[in-house]
Every structure is written in C-alpha cells, then in structure tokens.
Amino acid sequence: MSTMPAMFPMAQGRNCGKLGDAVCPIPMSYKIPESVLVVIHTPDLQVLLIERADRPGYWQSVTGSLDTPDEPLALTAAREVAEETGLIAAEHELDDWQHTIDYEIYPQWRHRYAPGVTRNTEHWFGLRVAQPRPVTLAPREHLRYQWLPWREAAALCFSTSNAEAVLQLDWRVHQGQRAACGADR
C-alpha cells in the first residue's frame, strides 16, 4: 500500500469510479498563510458582513488566502469578493489600505495550513459600492449577509482584526475626503 506525501491530505469519501476503489485520494494543497480582508462599504459607511457556514454566528468581511505565492494582492482581493459575494470589484472602488497585520491562526482552522504553521499575514482592502445591494453568497462558505452601520458591524465581527479594520473605515473614508479637498496641505 502506497502513501500520499504529507503535502497532499486525503479527501475522504469520494469514489474514484473504479470497481473496488472505496476512496479516491485527491491532492489538496495547504492554504498559503497570507491573505486579504476586504471591507465592503457604502459612502455613508454601511458595511457588508457575511455569516460563515462552518461557524454559524461568526460574522465577517470578505477574506481569503492567496492562491499562489506570487498572486498580486489586489487580484486576490477582487477574486475573493467575486467568489464570496458575486460583486465585481472592477465595477466599484477597490482601495488597498496599505495595512498589514500578522495574527495567530485560530486553532479550529490550523488543519488547513501546513503542519507547524500558526501565523497568517493579512492585507486590508476596502471596496466602496454606491449603496447597499443584494449579493450572491457561496452557499458552502456563507449562510447570510447583512448591511449594517459601521460601528454595529465592527461589534458583530467575531475576529478582532476584522473589527479593527471596520473601525478604521470612518477615518479612512474621511481622510480621503479631506485629501480630495486639499485639507491635508
């Protein structure tokens, strides 16, 4: 009996379609411990939150890991927004907040990463949409969504880093308005 390399965990329960094969090994790579967080918001600071399917009651902004180590961060952000909400980032205002944090990965999600990986680097983005709008959730990832005033959204986020990002929204939006008016000179 051969064994799969450790970097390819077995996907259990999938039939290969061959007589006698009960389970087909499917190569699955570990998540890259570098990700984006995208705060989707309106000009009046309504924030979109989505509820995790694997943890009902856990509300968050759009998040996701790089698909490849060299994937541009803005591309990761746009891809995750499309996958998780159906929104097309290019039709709105995607803003790289130039803010990066390093945090400990929650124990319940460490199995998604290579053995020994316990920390993740997260890059923050904002996506401004004109007004609250319906979104199309990925049902395997999220159960529900809601638009909330920014302070309420921050209070509902299960992740402290997500809450911190939402709490920066007011400052980031108004800083941009001041700069556009020349108030920062």
From TrEMBL:
Organism expressing this protein natively: Cupriavidus basilensis OR16
Entries under Pfam families matching the protein: NUDIX (PF00293)
Gene Ontology MF terms in the entry: dATP diphosphatase activity; dihydroneopterin triphosphate pyrophosphohydrolase activity; metal ion binding
Co-factor requirement: Mg(2+)
Assigned keywords, A-Z: Magnesium, Metal-binding
UniProt remark on cofactor binding: Binds 1 Mg(2+) ion per subunit.
Segments forming domain Nudix hydrolase: 31-170
Residues that coordinate or bind Mg(2+): E80, E84, E141
Protein name: Dihydroneopterin triphosphate pyrophosphatase
Organism lineage string: Bacteria, Pseudomonadati, Pseudomonadota, Betaproteobacteria, Burkholderiales
BP GO annotations: folic acid biosynthetic process
Keyword Flavoprotein: no
InterPro entries in the record: DHNTPase (IPR003564), NUDIX_hydrolase-like_dom_sf (IPR015797), NUDIX_hydrolase_dom (IPR000086)
Binding residue positions for substrate: K31, R52, T63, S159
Keyword check for Glycoprotein: no
